[in-house]
Amino acid sequence: MQIVPYKNNKLSKKEQVAMMFDNISQHYDFLNHFLSLGIDIRWRKKAIRLLKDYRPKRILDIATGTGDFAIEALKLNPDQVTGIDISEGMLDKGREKLKRMSLENKISLMYGDSENLQFEDNKFDAIIVAFGVRNFQNLYQGLSEMSRVLNSGGAVVILEFSKPQKFPFKQVYEFYFKNILPFIGKKISKDQSAYTYLPESVQAFPERNDFLTLLEKAGFIKTKCLPLTFGISSVYLAEKA
After folding, report:
1. Among 56, 164, 205, 227, which is least packed, fewest CB within 10 Å?
2. What domains lie within the chain, and their CATH numbers?
3. Residues paired with 127 in a beta bridge
4. C-alpha distances in angstroms, 92 versus 60, 189, 226, 233?
């Protein structure tokens, strides 16, 4: 059974996820940084540094949201970063941010379906995704599409939440993630389901070795998983043969 944001809604997971992010787009950046105590910024920086040796010139940021990961990717000095997302609300906030930072000539944000990418084969040198793959309706299809549009020898970096394993951090994390985070998220975003869906989707996600197996099945090699901050999140690195 798929985990969806709005359990009594008959829309597909993809449609529900788009609606959810439209609903919380005005508060998304604030909540992201506030609820993670700013650690998410460091996670993005570390993930992007893993691509340094690849020197990518064309980068695709899938589930770009408001563009934070795409902006961080500019440190790799690419020619162009393309960000796609299924939420027009998030894209609008991202475009406002790029305009304020005068980055419209370096980053382009557009509507795009991660499971049916609108790009030709072998177009990008690197693909990045931050906290997006667990929202895919068909995870394997999304990973296969990444492989298709990535150049041979190119790399993918995926940042995603995971579950701490060790006592007592595991217990503290679970209490915060299942009780405090949804309460604050609901109060600020006014969406009753988005921050309940978050821990549920993390719980259901095939993390660590299970996710590496999926990456390999989708055509990637040299797969690695690097846990971050006691295992709260993980960064996955893989190459296309």
Report:
1. 227
2. 13-240 (3.40.50.150)
3. 60, 156
4. 18, 17, 32, 27
